[in-house]
């Protein structure tokens, strides 16, 4: 019986991967310190081997799920023979053990990618980067092996069937949300490793930032998509129509995102201008530390949350030690090795440099605000000051004005020049944008909602300010395209051609934020919510729509039974359509779940959730109108696309030659592999 | 030298943070404090388990110290907890149940089978109240004072020992 050995195979592969991670952590770093090429070259094969064995291990666990091997405790707790096959495969990361395995698999995947795409790096740099990643990987693999082994058996009493996956997780959202989020979280380990390698090697020039930038952008883009998916999933699956709850676990993903956003901008300054060096290194450490802190908060159970994992104190202690060692060591190395010399290049009080500095400060303040709010109960309790936690009012009261300030400066940033920007010129270029934004934002809510709302006006004002200043910038940049040589009709096109993909990435990312802000403002202020009771044949009017319940039937799903209502929605002058909200009852876990009916639209969703059956045959229904809610996620997707666009810019593909020149900085004793001229990075 | 010391600031801040995290961890996770302690019991509008046409709201919890117990027929530990809840009711403690993520039939059968210590049970099939309370499983209990403020949160099963050592003293404390 082959099925019987998968868990052991997987466990064994996990142990081998751990051994390789340790070697990857120790040997290349030692080699870089003592300048032994052979030892440094050890990094790549170990990274590849580790990745291979983690894939094997992961596939073994997946096989145990696919084959319903309920002798494995983790499978028995999170799967059921009736579960559809695609949920069996995604149930692998449905709970703590499997999701840490996915975490490590993704980490080693990033290591693998670095070793493949960064062969042009100086050998000691690559050895150090992979060595640092090896340390992180060793820590987490040890964590799995000692406290969270997903291959643990339930012998000899093998349950006949599994307890089933939590119904909330039986959804497309679960299939995509965690992997995306982890890609982002873990992806920040790459820039962290680059920063540490630069510190260890004593090479804090701008070269490391150039190499680290594409990796950071990609990780950030994944995290952006991951957070958006999480919000979308909460919106339709939890059944309340909320899209952000300031829950500790949500905050745990927002923290590295905010810090990562600051990091992306600070990396740009360090690369282009050679300033902010220490700050950028510190931000790289800070960002990844927040990823680790998030992992700790989610899995240790120090904070109560709607989606906390099942808790085990030994796990919390282990992750805290891991967090303490990683962050403590890196900050200690930072304190010891960060360059003392103040960077020479200065900048005026109004310049792109200064605006990016303000952007960084604001983003860090936002990060700290969210961090404090999240761990506030721990802080107060630790000081013996009582037991209070802070909720959405705290976050909204601080986050909204900070975002407004950030947007104000974001509008100026792209138009300002490096080093020095005359204030008068900046004002001249932006005066029209500012006036148009203010007037439109003041008038617009009157047309839409019929009533004035400060929140909506503020939202539109910020969004318009961002968009119009970008439009102005694109306009100016293309006008000066090639004005001397080309004829007038062709200049603008030539100007467009001259703009780089990295520039368009910036534009798209900033536009994305504007779109998200509009979504937030509109859905927060113009949301309509009604709880009604309806019987088949009855109808109700909500926000200009008529909802009529025309039918109700029972239905059997693969692992649940359901009551499905058919609701016909009509609006004067438009064609009608039907919506089918459902109340499911999951057989194995005995849990009821409301499956929401959504009618998505670019300018608003209709949202109908079926409540419970009342005694006289009526049903309770929750009907909501969600204007512009899609803009939240659309904006996030645009931001992520902007990040990716910047990565595929040509200059990163030209990178090998440039960095080869930088390599002369430290003489290498010998070369093991002759450099191949065809080597091209992504 | 002075600059070097400045560079140590992040490390020091982090060390302070770790101390707090450790203290948060060192506590017994089952005795973890709810995020809602010393706050008003969240507003709700739910029907009762027995009577789907009877709607109740927060005012139910005002005027008297009440132990709100979140339970469900699907939760095996809740069955083990029932004798302790019945004992508390015998001691004169006012109990209100929240039948969490359950069906009416199952909930009623459960009370028929194991006894009903509750003055009334709220019916929360979608877990909306449970969500507002930050419940992440059943059973969980919240002690609410006469002003409707949450004063004590018990995560998990109330043991016979907890009845005498924790719950009754807490009830006394807030009754004064």
TrEMBL record, chain A:
Keywords: Cell inner membrane, Cell membrane, Cytochrome c-type biogenesis, Lyase, Membrane, Transmembrane, Transmembrane helix
Stored Pfam families: CcmF_C, Cytochrom_C_asm
Transmembrane segments: 12-33, 45-67, 100-118, 125-146, 182-202, 214-234, 254-270, 279-298, 318-336, 357-378, 398-418, 430-448, 454-475, 496-523, 628-648
Membrane topology: Multi-pass membrane protein
Presence of the UniProt keyword Cell inner membrane in the record: yes
Disordered: annotated segments: 659-682
GO MF, one annotated term: lyase activity
Span of domain Cytochrome c-type biogenesis protein CcmF C-terminal: 320-650
Keyword NADP: no
GO annotation, cellular component aspect: plasma membrane
Ranges of Pro residues composition bias in the record: 672-682
A single GO BP: cytochrome complex assembly
Top-level taxon: Bacteria
Listed InterPro entries: CcmF_C, Cyt_c_assembly, Cyt_c_biogenesis, Cyt_c_biogenesis_CcmF
Domain Cytochrome c assembly protein residue range list: 93-300
Subcellular location: Cell inner membrane
PANTHER family from the UniProt entry: CYTOCHROME C ASSEMBLY PROTEIN-RELATED, CYTOCHROME C-TYPE BIOGENESIS PROTEIN CCMF
Family designation: Belongs to the CcmF/CycK/Ccl1/NrfE/CcsA family.
Role, per record: Required for the biogenesis of c-type cytochromes. Possible subunit of a heme lyase.
Protein name per its UniProtKB record: Heme lyase CcmF/NrfE family subunit
UniProtKB/TrEMBL annotation, chain B:
Membrane topology label: Single-pass membrane protein
Residue ranges annotated for the Thioredoxin domain, each copy included: 35-176
GO cellular component: outer membrane-bounded periplasmic space; plasma membrane
Record-stated family: Belongs to the thioredoxin family. DsbE subfamily.
Name the record gives this protein: DsbE family thiol:disulfide interchange protein
GO BP terms: cytochrome complex assembly
InterPro entries on file: Periplasmic_diS_OxRdtase_DsbE, Redoxin, Thioredoxin-like_sf, Thioredoxin_CS, Thioredoxin_domain, Thioredoxin_ResA/DsbE_sf
Native source species: Salinicola corii
RNA-binding in keyword set: no
Entries under Pfam families matching the protein: Redoxin (PF08534)
Compartments (UniProt record): Cell inner membrane
Alphabetized UniProt keyword annotations: Cytochrome c-type biogenesis, Disulfide bond, Redox-active center
Coiled-coil intervals: none
PANTHER family attached to this UniProt entry: THIOL:DISULFIDE INTERCHANGE PROTEIN DSBE
Gene Ontology MF terms in the entry: disulfide oxidoreductase activity
